[in-house]
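Intended use. Records like the one below are meant for learning the mapping from a protein sequence to its folded structure. Do not use them to infer anything beyond what is encoded.
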Amino acid sequence: QVQLVESGGGLVQAGGSLRLSCTASLRFFSSYSVGWFRQAPGKEREFLAGLSWSGDNTYYANYADSVKGRFTISRDNAKNTVYLQMNTLKPEDTAVYYCAAVFSRSTVYNRQKEYDYWGQGTQVTVSS
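Structure written out for the chain above:
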């Protein structure tokens, strides 16, 4: 059974940083495109960042405008793990954060329906 497990969430003051991790029980993890989403209370789940690897040391990344320049997605294929470094956090970043994966190289997806596997989510709360 495929599992994606997020960690690293918590409470942080505005302006602070957090790094989320997502470890996946996927064979051939490097062939998966991975993404981060979040969902705030009363709002729809939104795309934040996605990352894929072509297999020849070329990475493709895409970011939502709302987090571009503040969040960075990265991956360690040897550890089956994807990260989301979040800097300059704002109260409006408060949400449950999810990682997701789909079997694909080179293409980065930004819509929920394009992902096959999801984690259970981790809460991030930013206080003002």
